[in-house]
Amino acid sequence: MVTNTRRAARRRGEPDVVEVNPVFARPGEATSVPKFRMPDDESLPSTAYQIVHDEAMLDGNARLNLATFVGTWMDEYASRLYLEAADKNMIDKDEYPQTAAVETRCWTMLADLWHAPDPERAIGTSTIGSSEAAMLGGLALKRRWQLARRAAGKAADRPNLVLSSAVQVCWEKFCNYFEVEPRYVPISLEHKVLDGHELEKYVDENTIGVVAIMGVTYTGMYEPVAQIAAALDRVQESTGVDVPIHVDGASGAMIAPFVQPDLEWDFRVERVASINTSGHKYGLVYPGLGWVVWRDVESLPEELVFRVSYLGGDMPTFALNFSRPGVQVLLQYYLFIRLGRTGYEAVQRASRDVALYLSGEIAKMPAFELWNDGSDIPVFAWHLRDGYTENWDLYHLSERLRTKGWLVPAYPMPDDLTDLTVQRVVVRNGLSRDLASAFLADLAGEVEYLDALTGPMPAERRRSGFHH
Description:
alpha/beta; Aspartate Aminotransferase, domain 1; about 35% helix; 4-stranded antiparallel beta sheet
């Protein structure tokens, strides 16, 4: 971590050692373990297990975490597969050729799901998460642009990427790490997402692509890919500049095919060159999996694909990571054949139904006004009604809900709307209607508590509770 956790722990008065419970300590074992250096002596497996188990117990209840998009539940057969395949290295295709074959099956299934013109001519890869997948998509856009510029005898040293001001932080990292100028199109009350409005002001001959988000992290809303493509068509007609689209479908690419199958956002839109998604979000797999798929092999420059000799085999690879777990790929394949399209549709529709139920009930509360209702991906946000109260804000409400175990972030909206604070709920598989009803009861109770205050809550430096 960037921060010094040891100094922070000392400021909080935490000791530098972990005390071993006498019930678990064995004769001859140390009775305490240092926190920030390796112990000198061994511990029994049962003692070490208990120490780590007790540390992890202090984490929150994942089922009550309404902040994260990341999956927190899989069935017992998936857990069994996880243990059986935990040692597989995804990158070692010579040692684990069947896992490599399963990876190819998975991204080919995704290419078909996303209407690639010829799924067998598409190309894709698994990644550690959708952030790596997005960066690979961005790298392909940059290299394609560079190759085209050089072939035309033009300068290729000032690439830019057009995206919404509400974009996920991985795209900020991409632009920083790979030296691409980000051009942020601000969202507003009139244009809540990047929708093609005034896009011509941001696009020029140095634009490597436009990022369209299927499920904006701040609010869960879809950006209209076909509408953005139409705006780029008009730009090409007037300037000759031909700009591709990368769809960041971290969440929505595993929702829209099942919940809004007629919505054209994928490879049906000709300008879409590549799509990324999170297997560990609405792909329903445990953390550690992303996917990126290109429309066809021409969309991924060959020079970005490395062919290396590894443990006796010739292996093509395009990734930022090298060795990484293969088990999540097997878990994704398990879910694809376990659920099929019908099963995924049932799961995703159930989550959206809960989101619509929650947003509908919250909209009835006098304190709140919805930003959106969760009808895109099952995520929605709300803010306090203007003039409702001077005694508390959504940060106070977030803190009160945390005392009941609910993690519901409060955070400012992005540039040009930073004076607006919202709260957001992410409905994932496992948040049942019963749990949603329990949350609503706690939400109403905490609002009632705050409304009963006779004076304002203490003001302190605000810490954003925003979670990607």
